[in-house]
Amino acid sequence: xxxxxxxxxxxxxxxxxxxxxxxxxxxxxxxxxxxxxxxxxxxxxxxxxxxxxxxxxxxxxxxxxxxxxxxxxxxxxxxxxxxxxxxxxxxxxxxxxxxxxxxxxxxxxxxxxxxxxxxxxxxxxxxxxxxxxxxxxxxxxxxxxxxxxxxxxxxxxxxxxxxxxxxxxxxxxxxxxxxxxxxxxxxxxxxxxxxxxxxxxxxxxxxxxxxxxxxxxxxxxxxxxxxxxxxxxxxxxxxxxxxxxxxxxxxxxxxxxxxxxxxxxxxxxxxxxxxxxxxxxxxxxxxxxxxxxxxxxxxxxxxxxxxxxxxxxxxxxxxxxxxxxxxxxxxxxxxxxxxxxxxxxxxxxxxxxxxxxxxxxxxxxxxxxxxxxxxxxxxxxxxxxxxxxxxxxxxxxxxxxxxxxxxxxxxxxxxxxxxxxxxxxxxxxxxxxxxxxxxxxxxxxxxxxxxxxxxxxxxxxxxxxxxxxxxxxxxxxxxxxxxxxxxxxxxxxxxxxxxxxxxxxxxxxxxxxxxxxxxxxxxxxxxxxxxxxxxxxxxxxxxxxxxxxxxxxxx
Amino acid sequence: xxxxxxxxxxxxxxxxxxxxxxxxxxxxxxxxxxxxxxxxxxxxxxxxxxxxxxxxxxxxxxxxxxxxxxxxxxxxxxxxxxxxxxxxxxxxxxxxxxxxxxxxxxxxxxxxxxxxxxxxxxxxxxxxxxxxxxxxxxxxxxxxxxxxxxxxxxxxxxxxxxxxxxxxxxxxxxxxxxxxxxxxxxxxxxxxxxxxxxxxxxxxxxxxxxxxxxxxxxxxxxxxxxxxxxxxxxxxxxxxxxxxxxxxxxxxxxxxxxxxxxxxxxxxxxxxxxxxxxxxxxxxxxxxxxxxxxxxxxxxxxxxxxxxxxxxxxxxxxxxxxxxxxxxxxxxxxxxxxxxxxxxxxxxxxxxxxxxxxxxxxxxxxxxxxxx
Lengths: 555, 372
Hints:
The complex is a heterodimer of chains A (555) and B (372). Chain A has 14 helices and 17 strands. By secondary structure, chain A is α+β, with helices and mostly antiparallel strands. Chain A has 3 domains: 23-226, 2-Layer Sandwich (Heat Shock Protein 90); 244-312, Helicase, Ruva Protein, domain 3 (Orthogonal Bundle), CATH 1.10.8.50; 322-555, Ribosomal Protein S5, domain 2, CATH 3.30.230. With 372 residues, chain B is an alpha/beta fold. Chain B has helices at residues 6-31, 74-94, 100-107, 122-136, 203-211, 214-218, 231-244, 256-267, 276-279, 293-296, 309-320, 327-339, 355-366; strands at residues 37-41, 48-51, 56-59, 63-67, 98-99, 145-146, 152-155, 157-161, 164-167, 176-177, 187-192, 196-200, 220-224, 248-251, 285-288, 305-306, 341-342. In chain B, the strands form 6 sheets. Chain B has a 6-stranded mixed beta sheet, with helices on both faces. Chain B starts with 5 loop residues before the first helix and ends in a 6-residue tail after the last helix.
């Protein structure tokens, strides 16, 4: 309630308090938006950002990635962890190092449309900022670009007000690696096993990146080795220009002002994909604008007309060969490498388009997953551009697609409106030049109808293959039961015949045994040891691990 | 019971040859990589017909295939072969005869590598023996098998049983126990003063009649078969009727099961239709209890028992059989259904303890008050 003693403040006095907020400051106050909510999640996000960057860098330089992840606890300091990620990537040139690691929203990925793991240029510098904010320790980087040069050894801090890096140390160093980058951060974090852990994250990274070799050491002195399952790099994704149908009004204005083209027609043709001179003409005609007008002169009203016209003109879909999906075979190999199960299959959908952005869905499924109860909900592995998504499963388009699939049709139990249950692991991968996340922390894929539709189609195909496998296994079990009934009585019958007519008992038994096998014939199966992922039933991209096959020995 | 007469030796050779043939056919089929099959004449209603000329139930030509490679038949196939081999290996070889219960124990053992027995119950082996009888066309006695004694007989007659002379007038209260095999080489009829034969359904009424010396007063042969009479009793009836030319009266409860006992004695049974020729007595007469007897003999109304749904169903089944199509029989059964009650033989004792022997049966036979 206002009282007489309170006087009104002038706009001028208020203006003194209004000033620019730096992104870094914003982050410092809103770190949950980027995935640093609590110590446990902060550790995961730190590892994730560093690993994503390393793999992206290797792939761009066409190097098969070989990465090590090490997490150490700091003696006598609870909740303090040192995270070190080392890669064999191309390295970073000296004057870029401070900006990449010490400045938020700096990077090569935001300004282009190209499939990559990171897309905003926030990740690793956010981790650095988190490190600084929680421990006061600088971020430590060693990077080397080739054998001829020495490695650079940097220590960086971030000026959170100005969003600028502060170089604490800049030295040269002898390093045993010919090229690559090592990032070391000390953070407040907590290491925990189980769901949503770093362990799980790295395991899923290995599934989606079978070309990756990775070694991992956890604070408890354990860890894991993830061998490489594929010796080829994924196809290099291509950069594309935005498709007119995916561009919003504000972006369109910005593009009009920044373009190098001098005419509207030229702008449309050169700054967008799939716009020919004919299409440009059509758009201009429909908008009532001249093709030779200067783009930078367009008034707001004219841009609005242009934007509306674009929506009405039929434009060819963007090129879809720009993506680099994991591929059915490789997804199968990745699943087979990390998930022990009886049956595997992988399904890849043809590329499709949402809001002008090409995307592609892949699904890998494993049935008979070891240690997974038949009453437990199935295990869902979500991937976006090969990056595992662990948090916010319920808010993700992947979950909606799985829940919205009628699993009972495939002989798998499912309560209405929930995930099916059974010994199943399902991996859903969305590859796109721009993955629509629900938030900046990149934890869940947004619900675009066309994306959900593609996911469902792939999941349904995978479900059908599981159903086929289950039916066949049921038939086999039945046949084996039948056979055992016949086999039970063979000796008695042969003995009786021998007593009655002097028939050769052994020979008769052998003949009856052969017949028993013949009348209960089932497909011959290879023993597990003989199966290599390269033998996957040719052309079907499914793999059946025979029952009673010898188990692989523990290492 | 080892008897090595020339006749039985020939019979044994014939039986042995039939069993060997059975095994040879199985082996031959296996060698041709065919599913081994034993053909078994079908012993069910679908494969019997009533021969109106001979007035008996005859078995048809239908056979069913018992095959080894069929999950529901494999066990029975094995059991059939086991019965055949045990009969040949144990009984024919030694020349000894044994009971079907003994045979069950001889064959029973655990199937190797399982916890399953070749036969779990005697109920399982008995029908398999009957299957073997029909499929190799050898009677039970030819397989050296007999059933346990069932039923008893007294009367005005002397017989020889396995060489021992037995005066059926001096059998005390228990009577002569009727063996399962009563072929002429075992049982011979000697001095016969009886004028007719009376088969009683149950032991209790038989004891009453025996105690009252009914057979002495009326010069008859009195026997019972403990409910549905076994093959030994039926064969004995057949022989007495045909060899001694005596009329046969049947005295059973007034319910569908009593009717059927009479019908089995007269026409033969569905299950053992292949034995009808040797056992059926088409001249047998039904002297009671009839569904009309309650009124005719003024029995007190509280002696009746309600028909159960099972009784009603069975009665309706009987009405559908070819051999129950005589008008008098339809009337008889329908009357029982209409009244909705049945009568046991013991109901007669309600009037007087010896009512059956002193009044009921003499009057029935004198008045020729029977159903044919």
